[in-house]
Amino acid sequence: MEKMFAGARLRQLREGQSMTQSDLARLLEISPSYVNQLEHNGRPLTLPVLVRLTEHFGVDAEFFAPQDIARLVADVREVFADETVTGSASAGEVDELTAKLPEVARTLVALHRRYREAVENIATLVSEQGMDRAVANQPHEEIRDWFYRRRNYVAELDEPAERLAAELRLVPGEVRSGLASGLRERHGVTVAAAPIGADQHRFDPAARVLHLSPALRPGQAAFRLASELAMLEAGTTIDRLVDGGGFTGETARRLARIGLANYFAGALVLPYRVFLGAAERCRYDITRLSDHFGVGFETICHRLSTLQRRGTRGVPFSFVRVDRAGNISKRQSATGFHFSRVGGSCPLWIVYEAFGSPGKIVTQVAELPDGKKYFWLARTVDRSVGGHGDPGKTFAIGLGCELRHARRLVYSDGLALGADAAVTPIGMGCKVCERPACPQRAFPAIGKPLRVDEHASSLLPYPPLG
Question: Member of which family (predicted)?
């Protein structure tokens, strides 16, 4: 067994039970000094001690497994990269803080986010632009953060949705009819196709009628049926999750309910084990999965980013949707990949190249400044919202995983993934990127002095000092 150092997790478990080190030592039949060494990572957990811990505390061994803290490290580094924050910390100090005191690091990140929100709200009020930023923007970020903390997996909804799919006997390709039958038989709801303006669907609870836009494709219609069924079947669970989510206002709470209902819908249309099995068999071929389940490219990618059930995990993916202007309208992650809140995203990222090859899947091996490598694929998707001459919507969908998982994907076939891989260095946004020599830099890095010489010029847009 690989050496397992789990001091922080062991201390968290002990303190959660209001136990002293001596209490824990008696329980594990070891000395108090041994417990102290375990909690300070002076000694690794042995198999006998691990077995006793799992038996006495009712946790599985995975609880003590080394945690992927790459995302948390990136969040903490962003705190110290903020030019308005007094003080600094080296990369080594940030790594040590995050590894040894992860809860302190998370608290620091949370406080910094609240601070940034307060600064932005004050700036909005002072500018007298008549927009309440706390109401207009922040609720969406709260929802994204909530899913981000959960690594984009919600067992309380995923498992009931899978059971309901089995009860309704949903069959790929015939999901819409199965959902309509479920709504009618279980809740007395009739489905009617009728023009409803710009809405995709609208439920009339008094008449028990669910109106669907006839413009919806079969997969879209199925998803809308599933999202309304989620409210009827799992409303109590959704309310409980929202109540415990710490959302700050009614707008955020309503958006959270919609987000959780959509999560349930995705898990209902694409049941966990059935979908994961199909994904593994076809090596995560998104086109084949889309054809088999009768849903769109984006829906498949989004569901792939949620397959993190303990004991039956799929490839841990990050999912992102961007527009031509670089705005990220959706972002979810089950990996250590970090989406920056400062300075946009990197122009060298493959998701932007996808706009140059509409409808074609493009791939990239990307390396972050910390040396971690990811395999990314991206493709554009189009949505028509009217007739001829009406503007439509075009997005690029990106799906990425750590490079070590890339060989599980059909898209890696024929590509060099080892030391000779063609790697593109990217960052998490110019203002926080640590790459001084990037010719694509749009902004100088926060807190980094620039070389400014009236009598010299550079190929770099923002040459660093020294």
Answer: Belongs to the short-chain fatty acyl-CoA assimilation regulator (ScfR) family.
Instruction: List the alpha helices (DSSP H) in 313-418.
Output: 350-353
The tens digit of pLDDT for each residue in 95-144 reads 778 777 788 888 888 888 888 777 766 655 554 444 444 434 468 888 88
The CA distance from 76 to 100, in Å, is 13
Give pTM, 2 decimals: 0.73
Q: Which domains does the chain have, with CATH numbers?
A: 7-64 (1.10.260.40), 70-136 (no CATH), 137-294 (1.10.10.2910), 315-466 (3.30.450)
Q: Which two tokens stand for residue 220?
A: 């879209």
State how far the Cα of 109 lies from the Cα of 181, in Å rounded to an integer.
Answer: 47
pLDDT at 126: 53
Q: What percent of the chain has pLDDT over 90?
A: 42
Give Rg (Cα) of the chain.
25
DSSP H helices, 218-285, are: 218-243, 250-269, 272-281
In sequence order, the 6+-apart residues with CB closer than 8 A to the CB of 428 are 74, 78, 338, 339, 340, 345, 346, 368
Tokens of 459: 């190929």
Look up tokens 């995560």; give the residue: 284
Q: 390-413 burial, b for 16+ CB within 10 Å, e for fewer?
A: eeeeebbbbbbbbbebbeebebbe
**381 touches 360 (CB < 8 A):** no
**DSSP code per residue over 186-219:** HH-PEEEE---TT-SEEEETTTTEEEE-TTS-HH
